[in-house]
Amino acid sequence: MDTYALLLAATLNAGTVLAIAGLGLLVNERAGIVNLGAEGMMLVAAIAGFATGVHTGSDWLAFGAGALAGATMAAAFGVLVIWLNTNQYATGLALSLFGSGFSAFVGIRYTQERLGTRPHFAIPGLSDIPFFGPALFRQHPMVYLTILFTLGLAWFLYRSRAGLVLRAVGESPESAHALGYPVRRIRLLAVTCGGALCGVAGAYISVVYTPLWVEGMVAGKGWIALALTTFATWRPSRVLLGAYLFGGVTMLQFHLQGEGVAISSQLLTMLPYLATIVVLVLISRNPVWIRTNMPASLGKPFFPGR
């Protein structure tokens, strides 16, 4: 039972990374912008967060540095695609490649660094419950904040006026512009906020999830988070559930290796990505369902006054 409790705890930990990044990308896409640069933003945020953690010893300052790094890169992306009308897909790929190279260059001096003594978190009383205590109530506070943020984002999108405006911009920017809403500024704000969330996810990897800095340590999680938004049909609650599903698959490979299962380690490492491909294939079999849930202007440029 202790083994399964630790597996569940590791699933929540791994899923939190995907959930934070996936929610950030969902905000982008609800405004009609596709950002393929999540991997690069998370890598730059990971080194920014790790470096801040090394020098300050504070997880929260590290998360702030990661959010700032992600927001800065996303804002640059937003200016290019929203004001200069560059191709969203090509610009996102360029951002991802830039982030990969820049983080590797900046992170050279931090490959041998170590964070200070890591704190142990536990909710008094609940953490001592057999099985459920170690599995659910000894997590980093960011795990619980992610769940609360998911609920808050769902309320924002479907119960608030600002959320309605954001979704309107994603569905029909021409109509929103005709009603007097500053479509491009709203899109830039959404992209920047989404980048900040991807930055927090990147910092969480290097500060909590590992915690260390290794070149390329995001290891495809940005791409999985991007696929997660489609898997979740652009709904926050489904992003969270999907993140835990993929997190569980990721942790299962380590559990099977620890149990000595006679399967190639390379094949086990492929499990999260195979699961992503299988899910996308299954979803793609029903294009009507995707079109019904997908923001109508997703990936389409908007030119006011034309």
From TrEMBL:
Signal as a keyword?
A: no
For this UniProt record, give its keywords in alphabetical order, as a comma-separated list. Answer: Cell membrane, Membrane, Transmembrane, Transmembrane helix
Under InterPro entries, the record lists: ABC_transp_permease
Return one GO MF term. Answer: transmembrane transporter activity
Q: Where in the cell is it found?
A: Cell membrane
Top-level taxon: Bacteria
Q: Give the transmembrane region(s).
A: 6-26, 33-54, 60-84, 91-110, 141-158, 188-207, 213-232, 239-256, 262-283
Q: How does it sit in the membrane?
A: Multi-pass membrane protein
Gene Ontology CC annotation, any one: plasma membrane
- What is this protein's name? ABC transporter permease
Biological source species: Scleromatobacter humisilvae
